């Protein structure tokens, strides 16, 4: 039961007595923490109450999050995590959009924060730990978690995939801006993230001869993607004349040590400090195996979809002999998928 009483210049919001809500009284000038406030559905004063707060939400009065009282629960959650709302969108969010904003709000705590090397491992898997079928694009994640991937990309400098993923998926590895949801967090500034393909034997040289349709190339040429880097063993290095890609040679003794490899790439390409490793299975397995030894993964974000792919699917299962438990774990629920977030 909700109640609103007035007394002098004080407003008292009588709230449901739940664990995280309690009676509060606030003077007009005092800071009002929205996360402590419950507001009655369809209360005509919703906007007013929100205006009292120091989150400076008053300027978002057209924002559907603010004006629609049935979004208050959601709004509370968002404001617990971030101090400002940045959306300029003036149309109601769908339920799916709300779920996405909710996921992005949680993801914010797992993003690279400073200029130090940051390694994020992220992928989408089925209930049987499969991440796709061979040579067949296998949608696993819901649109909600797909948007999360783009949001993650925005916050990284380079996206890393193994050569098989490049060949089998012909991936775009670029950033797509979804205004409805992302405008609460970021601006569409045409951010380009560097695609990095781990191609030890530089097989791309042969591949180019027979394949014209390479999305990384098309994206670069049409201005929606950054120049790719193909990372090969020093012993396999060959120059390239291709304008859409560079080749980076790495000393053979470093190459298969993924933490050392990423450090080396960052040293040679100082603008790349944060890496988002997206797969495929061999790279993910190796990452987890190395991480068991030296804990170099800063963030792990795994989407788990309610599907089975069966034993023909590509399997993620590292060759480790001891239990590897992720730290600081949070689970965020989408409509279909669940996202596991973990950080060092
Ligand atoms: N669901 C998801 O989130 C997701 C994401 C990405 C990919 N995938 C799927 O994953 C599948 C591909 O996985 P995959 O395991 O076959 O291939 P992969 O991990 O994409 O690439 C493996 C290749 O990368 C090269 N490589 C470079 N460094 C390596 C290292 N340290 N360890 C192992 N290999 C290294 C090797 O090339 P050489 O053989 O030339 O030595 C190796 O064969 C595709 O079906 C794709 O659709 C799913």
Topology record:
Blueprint: E1 3-7, E2 10-14, E3 24-27, H1 46-51, H2 64-67, H3 72-81, H4 95-107, E4 118-125, H5 143-154, E5 158-162, H6 163-169, H7 179-182, E6 194-198, H8 204-210, H9 215-221, E7 228-233, E8 245-250, H10 252-255, H11 258-268, E9 274-279, H12 281-294, E10 299-304, E11 329-333, E12 338-343
Parallel strand pairs: 4-9, 4-10, 5-6, 5-9, 6-7, 7-8
Antiparallel strand pairs: 1-2, 2-3, 10-12, 11-12
The protein binds NADP nicotinamide-adenine-dinucleotide phosphate (NAP).
Describe the structure.
The protein is an alpha/beta fold and 344 residues long. The chain has 2 domains: 3-92, no CATH class; 105-343, Dihydrofolate Reductase, subunit A, CATH 3.40.430.10. Helices cover 29% and strands 19% of the residues. It contains 12 helices and 12 strands. The protein has helices spanning 46-51, 64-67, 72-81, 95-107, 143-154, 163-169, 179-182, 204-210, 215-221, 252-255, 258-268, 281-294; strands at residues 3-7, 10-14, 24-27, 118-125, 158-162, 194-198, 228-233, 245-250, 274-279, 299-304, 329-333, 338-343. The strands form 2 sheets. A 9-stranded mixed sheet has the order 8-7-6-5-9-4-10-12-11, sandwiched between helices. It has a 3-stranded antiparallel sheet with strand order 1-2-3, with no helix packed on it. Strand 1 (3-7) and strand 2 form a beta hairpin. Helix 4 packs parallel to helix 5 (143-154). The longest helix is centred in the last third of the chain and has 14 residues, at 281-294.
